[in-house]
Structures are given as structure tokens and as C-alpha cells.
Write a structure and sequence with these properties.
Elements (H helix, E strand, L loop, with lengths): L2 H10 L11 E5 L2 E4 L4 E4 L2 H4 L8 H11 L12 H14 L3 E6 L2 H13 L5 E5 L8 H5 L4 H4 L8 E5 L4 H7 L4 E6 L15 H12 L2 E5 L23 E4 L10 E6 L19 H16 L2 H17 L4 E7 L2 E6 L4 H10 L2 E2 L1 E4 L2 E4 L7 H19 L1
Parallel strand pairs: 3-13, 5-6, 5-7, 7-8, 8-9
Antiparallel strand pairs: 1-2, 2-3, 4-10, 9-10, 11-12, 12-15, 14-15
Helix pairs in contact: 3-10, 4-10, 11-13, 12-13
């Protein structure tokens, strides 16, 4: 990023993200290019957003067609893509459910938070290490103290429990709890996978105490783990599920799904949105789902994700490779994730240093086997470099 662009950025954009690493100008498939013409293999996909990569013709066609037909209407009116996407999501859940569309994961979680208040209870049990968004309600449910402390007091009556600890969850849940909120795999914490049976234990506890089970699939949903939703592998059905990121393939959209009786807890006047569920974003969502189905990307995600994990697991700097599908965590022997991320960028690989000793990969679902092989070669070389 040239000094000119850096100065322009710092002179006009709020300093909430620090100085950008690069100025990106173009993307195609799993690659992006910066203003100097350097190509990068995108192993982060806009933080698990660009499910079909960059410039996918299905999304381009769907958005263009819809925008030239009908763009924005507000929710005083319905549109065909809005109804069709809601129906599709309900069908993927396989249960009687209702959908509220929003514009982001944080907004989807805000909607779910309001639904929990309609139960007549206020206490929410949330896992340590969680990330659910930066709006005030979602922030109240996000674990990282550095994010929360500057904005306290925050809404909510929140009880924190260690992630993956079923006994701690059982001790915290009683008849005063409105909901238990969990990620099926913690993404921002570095792709942390809970023990077998953890989500089933949460489902049993919430059912026993009349509480809602709320699963945040903002990062893990829409095929990222090789299933439409990561909770599916555990055999449970939540009462609330939130989606965003990959749902629109790069077009901003979020969704809160409420199953069964929870679907009627919000009534007219209880919640709203101006842009949520607009025709362009929902058309993009339909294109993403249709492409995943047509190209069998769920199976592809599983195969290529396994390839990445196998290729990285035996490096001397790596103690574990976590996750499922194309949500991959690389656990490092030393706290060298930050220099590894910088070295990877210099080598033409975009990835994320989630914690001091964890790297995160969330590439497009279309990442090819050849590109995965290149990623393994490049990451191993970067780990050699930072280890030395």
C-alpha cells in the first residue's frame, strides 16, 4: 500500500482497524491482486465470507439481474427472492422455522438476543472464548475483555462458562436461564472444537430447564465445515440459529432462524430493519446455495479441508490442526502466529493470526486441490522461516 493511499486512508477513515496491510484492487476465484499487481492466494475469504471466491459468475449474474429488476423496497413489501431464500433456509434446517433477515452476523445475533427476552427470562449462559459481534448487545455476549471493557455497562444478565466443559454448563443452567449461546466451533478463538457430546449435553440441559439453545453459525454455517450447518454433525436441532458471512458470498446479509415455538416469539413491532432481507442480498444468497448444491461443494470442502490438515499436521512447529472442512486452525508450538501471518502475506498467502499461537484458514469453498497443495507448501515454508 503506497504512502499516498495510506495517507488518504488515514485522512478519511476512522482508525478502528489500524493501517491496512495492502490495497486490494481485483479478485478472481481464490486469488486477489493489490495495487502493485502482486497476486495472493486468499486463504481467509474476507473472514469466511467469500464462499464462492471472488467474482463468481453465479453471484454476479444473480445480483445484476435483481438490481436491474428491483433493488430495495423496505419491509413494508415482500419480494420473491426474500421469500424464496427464507423457504430454502427453512428447508435446509429441516424443521418448522421462521427467518428474520438482517445485514450482518452481529445484527442476526441482536435479533436472537431480543427473542430470548420474549421468554420472560433474562439470563444468558455464554462460553468463554466466544465472539458474537461488536454491537452493544452482541458485545455483551462476546468473551474478550478488551473488546467489552471500554463500553461497559453492557446489556444482559450473562453467565460465562468454559467452552467445551459440559459439567460447568450443567452447573450454570437452571430454570432462570433464557438461553445458552454457543458456537459449534469457536472461530475467532482460533478454530477451537469442543469435545464429542458437548452440543448434545447443551441440548439436553436447555430442554430440561425450558431454555432456548442458540447456536451461532455466523462463521461455521453455509457449508464451511462440510455440512450446511456445523451443529448437524452432533445430531441436535437448536431453537435459534444465526447466519451471515458465507450466506451472501460477499454481499452483506444475516439471518436469524427460530425453530418451532421460538419462531412466534417476535411479533409486529418487536423488531425491524430497513435493509434486511432486501431483494439483491437475498438473490445473492439463493445463488450461493444453488451453486453449493449444483457443484457438490459440501463434499469438496471435506476433501480439500482434509488435504490441508494432513499436509500441515507433521510440521515441527505445529502441535495440532483443528476444525472441520475449510475452517482450519493451526496450533503452533511457539507464539509466532503474528510474524507467520506477516511472512505469509509477503509470500503471497492471506491468512489470519487468530491468537498468538494459532493461525486460522477459512478459504473460499471453491479452493482447488492444486491451490490447497500450494497453500500447504507456502505455509510450511513460512513456518520454517519463523521457527528459524
Amino acid at each position: 500500500m503506497t504512502t499516498t493511499w495510506t495517507n488518504r486512508y488515514e485522512g478519511a477513515v476512522m482508525n478502528t482497524f489500524g493501517t491496512p496491510a495492502r490495497l486490494l484492487v481485483r479478485g478472481e476465484g481464490a486469488y486477489v491482486w493489490d495495487d502493485a499487481g502482486t497476486r495472493y492466494l486468499d486463504l481467509l475469504a474476507g473472514i469466511a465470507v467469500n464462499a464462492l471466491g471472488h467474482g463468481h459468475p453465479a453471484i454476479v449474474e444473480a445480483v445484476t439481474r435483481q438490481l436491474t429488476t428491483l433493488g430495495h423496497t423496505s419491509n413494508f413489501f415482500a419480494t420473491e427472492p426474500q421469500i424464496a431464500l427464507a423457504e430454502k433456509l427453512v428447508g435446509l434446517v429441516g424443521q418448522d422455522a421462521r427467518v428474520f433477515f438482517a445485514n450482518s452476523g452481529a445484527e442476526a445475533n441482536e435479533a436472537a438476543f431480543k427473542i430470548t427476552r420474549r421468554t420472560g427470562r433474562t439470563r444468558i449462559v455464554v462460553a468463554e472464548g466466544s465472539f458474537h459481534g461488536r454491537t452493544m448487545g452482541a458485545l455483551a455476549l462476546t468473551s474478550k475483555e478488551a473488546y467489552r471493557a471500554p463500553f461497559e455497562p453492557l446489556p444482559g444478565d450473562v453467565t460465562w462458562v468454559p467452552y467445551g466443559d459440559a459439567a460447568a454448563l450443567e452447573a450454570a443452567v437452571d430454570d432462570t436461564v433464557a438461553a445458552v449461546l454457543l458456537e459449534p466451533i469457536q472461530g475467532e478463538a482460533g478454530v477451537v472444537v469442543p469435545p464429542e457430546g458437548y452440543l448434545q449435553a447443551a441440548r439436553d440441559l436447555t430442554t430440561r430447564h425450558g431454555a432456548l439453545l442458540w447456536i451461532d453459525e455466523v462463521q461455521t454455517g453455509m457449508g464451511r465445515t462440510g455440512d450446511w450447518f456445523a451443529y448437524s454433525a452432533s445430531g441436535i436441532v437448536p431453537d435459534l440459529m444465526t447466519l451471515a458471512k458465507g450466506l451472501g458470498g460477499g454481499i452483506p446479509i444475516g439471518a436469524c432462524l427460530a425453530v418451532g415455538a421460538a419462531g412466534s416469539l417476535l411479533q409486529p413491532g418487536n423488531h425491524g430493519t430497513t435493509f434486511g432481507g432486501n431483494a439483491v442480498a437475498t438473490a445473492a444468497g439463493l445463488a450461493v446455495i444453488a451453486t453449493i448444491e449444483r457443484e457438490d461443494l459440501l463434499g469438496h470442502v471435506t476433501r480439500v479441508g482434509d488435504q490441508l490438515r494432513r499436509g500441515l499436521a507433521d510440521h515441527p512447529q505445529v502441535t495440532d490442526v483443528t476444525g472441520r472442512g475449510l475452517l482450519v486452525g493451526i496450533v503452533l508450538r511457539e507464539p509466532v502466529a503474528a510474524p507467520a501471518q506477516k511472512a505469509a502475506l509477503a509470500a503471497g498467502l492471506i491468512l489470519n493470526n487468530a491468537t498468538p499461537d494459532r493461525l486460522r484458514l477459512a478459504p473460499p469453498l471453491i479452493l482447488s486441490e492444486d491451490q490447497a497443495a500450494d497453500a500447504v507448501t507456502g505455509i510450511r515454508a513460512v513456518l520454517d522461516e519463523v521457527s528459524a
